[in-house]
């Protein structure tokens, strides 16, 4: 049998350096159940996605757009705001804050006279199509002619209603009464022309999105002065740089270098321009419209999947650098230095000082693999170290899965809601693609908490810790996620040399007395 030699790594922890608070909202999720929220001790739970863009709160119905044959269907009983109220209530019972999406596309779903489903691309009306919902609603087609080509000039009223911000005012006030504070300004609007092409066949321009943001955010602020508004909720790299109009134009013309909407706005990228103009409107009116700059991000190679090939696993180990590393050039079609969290913080500092930053959808996939767990543990550490304000994984991993337990190791490793620390401190790992490290002080008991992630597929790692500006008060508790489950291992001395199993996440909890602060120069 062949054994690989253990990688030898020195990890340096400086407890007085790089100190800043870690916001507990960075451990957020999408659509977590009450039980999952309690078990994971999570503070933030989002309801988002394509189906939220056309939620009709009066009929408790929505249209699932291109995700499911452009069908409008009920979200539950005929109870106004029923789906939203259920989500908010369950989230609050789970001890978290709920975030709910407010549609801005100008259309909502409608149902038939007896709450039956309606279709935007009825086969009876528009003819045979390449695919249909044969099991549940055979008249619902996918909007593509059987001979090819998308159906154009359909009637959006077939399954939808025209609305404006006033339609949602009473609903926002109602949810405020239910205790909701976080309001998401729609979902991935620069993809509407594809995802919701039955009602929005032409991509929204920069000016259009500014006007919609002002109109809908003003309505929300009027209905709930305490609202925390998140946007623009864009889908990914191109959605940060180009409006929906430009993305559609570039796709049709196969020309991504001279997009007309951006050129008409001084060549500025879409999201920074939007931030600048929103801030200008806020300063002119005295009404705050945006509280958190939020975007989505998914790695664009094999990471966001269940791919367990060696190539995919190695790419997961490396591509978390997209979130922070200026030296890492994304090897996918993105072909750029993404450095997402610093980029978001730079945009807010330049164009909207004081705005918080968040990533409300992301995933590196592989829920059932330890490779997915090591990637997720790396991401959670990066969010805290880089000073992100909130994050929500799409979606909540299955209870008990390795990725689920990566969250649990940070938030409730002992089942008594003990967690990783709340003040980030400097942890230096020289080879983070193989062994990553994060550290934080837990202020309630002054413990130093250290997460060590051995991403390697085949080899153990031998880690020597060097602590500075921290006086241990005894041996460290050692909790370890390996082979998919969390277990407590034997306590170790804080300066011990540790052996980390391959594909594992180890949490050390070092009791402490006080931090020796370095003099500020």
Explain the overall architecture.
The protein has 521 residues and is α/β, with parallel strands linked by helices. Helix content is 27%, strand content 26%. It is built from 14 helices and 27 strands. The strands form 6 sheets. Strands 1, 2, 18, 19, 20, 21, 23, 24, 25 and 26 form a 10-stranded mixed beta sheet that branches. Strands 3-4-7-13-14-15-16-17 form an 8-stranded parallel barrel. Helix 4 (166-177) packs across helix 6 (206-223), helix 6 packs across helix 10 and helix 13 packs parallel to helix 14.
Secondary structure elements and their pairing?
Blueprint: E1 7-14, E2 20-21, E3 28-30, H1 34-40, E4 44-47, E5 61-63, E6 71-74, H2 82-93, E7 97-102, E8 107-109, E9 118-119, H3 123-126, E10 132-133, E11 137-141, E12 160-162, H4 166-177, E13 182-185, H5 192-195, H6 206-223, E14 228-234, H7 237-241, H8 244-253, H9 260-263, H10 270-285, E15 292-297, H11 310-319, H12 340-351, E16 356-362, H13 370-386, E17 390-393, H14 402-411, E18 423-428, E19 435-442, E20 447-454, E21 461-468, E22 470-472, E23 476-482, E24 485-492, E25 497-500, E26 504-510, E27 512-515
Parallel strand pairs: 1-21, 3-4, 3-17, 4-7, 7-13, 13-14, 14-15, 15-16, 16-17
Antiparallel strand pairs: 1-18, 2-18, 5-6, 6-9, 8-12, 10-11, 18-19, 19-20, 20-26, 21-25, 22-27, 23-24, 23-26
Helix pairs in contact: 4-6, 6-10, 10-12, 13-14
